[in-house]
Amino acid sequence: MNRPVPQTLSPSSMGAFTSCPLAFRFSYVQRLPEPPSAPASKGTLVHRALERLLDRPASDRTIDAALEDLTVAAKELADHPEFSGLALSETELAQFHADAAVLVHKYFEIEDPRTVKPIGLEIKLAAQLDKVTVRGIIDRLELDENGDLVITDYKTGNTPNERWEEKSLAGVHIYALLCEQNFGKRPVKVQLMYLSKPELIIATPTEGSIRAVVSKSGAIMDAVKRACSKDDFRPNESALCNFCSFKEFCPKFGGDPATAEIVLQERAAVAAGRPPLPLSTV
Ligand code: SF4
User: Fold this and answer.
1) Separation of 255 CA from ligand 1 center, angstroms?
2) Which among 262, 184, 195, 258 is positioned nearest to 3, based on CA atoms?
3) Cα(250) to centroid of ligand 1, in Å?
4) Where in the sequence of the chain do the CATH 3.90.320.10 domains occur?
5) Whose CA is nearest to atom 2 of ligand 1?
6) In terms of pLDDT, which residue wins out, 165 or 63?
7) Looking at ligand 1, which atom is closest to the CA of residue 246?
8) Fold entry, domain 117-217
9) Cα 14 to ligand 1 centre (Å)
10) 220: pLDDT strictly greater than 60
């Protein structure tokens, strides 16, 4: 059996394939529904609040305005399944919002948003390379004091250790490539803003780093095609298994990948209040 090859790759999907091909198959080839997770939803909420904040005139970007934006963002997103599906108790929900407010406060320890000159927020970009179309969403594109482009990517999880930092920076260089291909200008800086610590990790894109992204994306797409043609997606056990939504279906942990589709589709149907799908349609 072969499997359909994904049309595009993103920094997340490339990271998923290189971390664990089987988890990639579940997420990006089979597109199985994953239960919402509080850390990911908190990230979405804080991203939206910061987007609203940076959309304000510079002089209005105060901490009070940011907390107001967080409240508005929470109302906007409340009915989205990513949030309503969390099924948090009242206490857990209060903690969830308090943690998001802490991240917003920490953001102000990193920079004064009144000095930022954004020219684009949450920009969806794609670039056609030789072997693959790469796409991604840039949280923030801005001009520095010299009129050069700077990309900022907000991170709401913990600061990575050295090994994972390398992986995070691989994604960063993809954003630089997307920017160069779409706007004809290479950013002088790409910064990962880890709000929880808070800490900035900065990368400087070069001709070499852009070339490396092009060749690595092509190599990953070749490997994805090979894996799809033979349906050969091997599990790769690592620290990430503790956060994997598919662990119960992973052979490394005694699970059966063949059961994932039907079980997860049924759970998603029940969570959405729909009757479970008949077996033959799954
Ligand atoms: S549990 Fe670990 S090895 Fe198994 S699919 Fe998930 S990430 Fe891969």
Assistant:
1) 10
2) 258
3) 6
4) 117-217
5) 241
6) 63
7) 6
8) Lambda Exonuclease; Chain A (3.90.320)
9) 15
10) yes
